[in-house]
Amino acid sequence: MKVLILFHSLGGHTEQLAREIAVGASSIIDAEYKTFDRAEPEEIRQADGLIVGSPSYFGNPTPEIAEFWKSISHLRADMQGKAGAAFSTGLHQSGGRETTILSILHSMLIFGMVVAGDPLETGGHYGLTTYGDITEQDKINARLFGERIAKIAGKLAQREQ
Ligand SMILES: Cc1cc2nc3c(=O)[nH]c(=O)nc-3n(C[C@H](O)[C@H](O)[C@H](O)COP(=O)(O)O)c2cc1C
User: Fold this and answer.
1) Domain of 78?
2) Of 71, 97, 101, 150, which residue is the least packed, with the fewest Cβ within 10 Å?
3) Given this model, what pLDDT does residue 7 score?
4) Which residue lies with its CA nearest to atom 23 of ligand 1?
5) Is the pLDDT of residue 161 over 70?
6) How many beta carbons lie within 10 A of that of residue 59, not counting itself?
């Protein structure tokens, strides 16, 4: 069982979160993180869970992430019933990270995925977000988020078997 963490990051903030999410997720099941454009369609198809991260650009995922969904639209049937979750970084406190996450979750819903947010320990809302420099607490939160989504992905995958 495996969870795939895909992200877009030019400045490294979103990548730092992806790395910590992978640390948390890999304590439960296999986990791998990579930029969205390095993931082969076949590995996305085979993953039991998908966690997608994007910086907030004007309150939305980056155009590259929007294009990513388009590029994997042929996998829609394969993604049915898999766990999905989202994370986002931004520069400003009210800079639209939640709207960014919700946009990613909307796409996951359209792919038939079962979406989940962050664990109660970190607030229990839409997913993982940070703004400004990544702090030690952000890294702890990212690991807890990764653990939660990996547990859900594992449970859903077991039910499928
Ligand atoms: C074109 C552009 C638009 C942005 N729009 C927002 C925004 O609406 N809200 C915000 O908080 N930050 C915004 N930012 C800042 C980035 O979201 C932030 O620096 C993010 O952490 C960058 O992630 P990265 O280091 O992984 O590339 C924007 C940056 C760029 C380049």
Assistant:
1) 2-160
2) 71
3) 98
4) 55
5) no
6) 16
What 3-state DSSP class applies to 59?
A: coil
Give the relative orientation of helices 13-26 and 136-160 as an angle to the nearest 10 degrees: 50
The number of folded domains in the chain is 1
Q: Provide φ and ψ at 24, rounded to 5°.
A: -65, -45
- Look up residue 60 and give its DSSP letter: B
Coil/strand/helix, residue 124: coil
Quote the DSSP letter at residue 134: P
Q: Dihedral of CA 25/49/96/126: which sign?
A: negative
pLDDT per position as a tens digit, 118-137: 999 999 999 999 999 999 99
- Write the Ramachandran bin of 112: left for phi over 0, alpha for psi from -120 to 50, otherwise beta: left
pTM for this entry: 0.98
Q: Which atom of ligand 1 is nearest to the CA of 58?
A: 8
Q: Which of 19, 58, 88, 94 for a ligand 1 pocket mutation test, highest count of atoms within 8 Å of Cβ?
A: 58
Q: Tell whether ligand 1 has an atom less than 6 A from the beta carbon of residue 119.
A: no
